[in-house]
Each structure stands twice: as structure tokens, then as C-alpha cells.
Design a protein that fits this description.
The protein has 200 residues and is α/β, with parallel strands linked by helices. It folds into 2 domains: 8-40; 46-195, Double Stranded RNA Binding Domain (2-Layer Sandwich). Helices cover 34% and strands 30% of the residues. It has helices at 18-41, 53-57, 92-104, 170-195, and strands spanning 48-51, 65-67, 74-78, 84-89, 112-126, 133-146, 149-162. Strands 1, 2, 3, 4, 5, 6 and 7 form a 7-stranded mixed β-sheet that branches. Helix 3 packs across helix 4 (170-195). It is elongated, with a radius of gyration of 27 Å.
Length: 200
Amino acid sequence: MAHCRAGAAGGTFPGLCPGEIRGLEVTKCLLAAAAAMLLSACGGKTMIEADASRMVAASPGSPWLTVENKGGTVVTVKGLDAKAHVEVTPDIVSVIQAQLRTSLQPKYFTDLIIGCRNVDLAVTATPQADSPATTIDLQADCRIVARGKVVAKGYRVRQSAPLNAAEPRLDVQVPALLQSASRELADQLWADVVATGVQR
């Protein structure tokens, strides 16, 4: 059997026969197509952007109520065919703090201080359920000082929203879940403020 060598027929693949060259070109095309399909399946990007900056900007400045902020921005949504990563702007805790301030500022009285830390959350989607939904579980350790009376405890809240499995729109749903969970946390915090017996 004759062996091909570099030459005019070799083109850019010296030492290969024309048939071998065509085989390499087909392989390269198949690999490129597979990569394109993979990018398409992933939506062409690895992160879903969720802009909640207006929600944060609209909240009151309430220095008496703070949430320890470590700057985390990414929420991972589990339960879908592939995990979805949602990047919240400006960051997760800023959204929570903003909603707590919006909910509780109208109830403020002098010598009331609330501080929360160790914020943790999980978001899960159930697209195969009879009623598809996305659920957020939020927990935080908070300390209330109401005119010298102290309450320190862990808080847990859960909120759900209907899920359109065909078009999840997590860029909208994740900030909305953060907002509703923060409202429930605000209700729990205020219930403990009232339980101290301190009058406004």
C-alpha cells in the first residue's frame, strides 16, 4: 500500500492522504456542532441575572435594623433538569435587609435595635408536581433589643410561588421569593418585639 507524504495534496495536513484529511475535517465539524448544541442547551450562558437594585434603592435608610452582609450574590435553584444559578444584583442580603426595613420602619420606636446574621437560604423547584412551584427556605439568627429587653433566637421561614415549568423566569421569581420570605421574617420579628411588652 502506498503511503502519502507532504506535498500539494497534503495541504495543511502534511503526511496525510486526501481521504484522511477529509475525515479530520468532518471530525472537527462534528465537535464544533456538539459544542454549539451544548451551549444552546445551557442557554448560551451559565448565570441568570436578576436585578433587584430598584427594590433596594426604594427602601428606607434604617440604621437601627441591619443584616450582616458577606456579599453573596448567587442563588442556586435545585430541582430542575440542571441546576440554575441566579446572580442577584446588588446582592442577596441587601435585598433581604431592604425588605425588612420597608416592612418595619413604619413600626419603629425609639431605642429599638434589630440585628440579624448567619443568613442562609435554599431555593427548590418542583416542575413535575401537580402544582409546579418554586420554594424558598430562609433562616437567620436575629437579636432584638427593645428598650433594654432582649430577644435572641433563630428564625425560619418558607415561601412558595407557582412555577411555569415551560418558562421558569427565575430572574423575576427569585427576587420575588426573597421579598416575600423577608416580609414573613419581618412579621416574625415584629411579633417578638410586641411580645416584649414594650409600648411604642
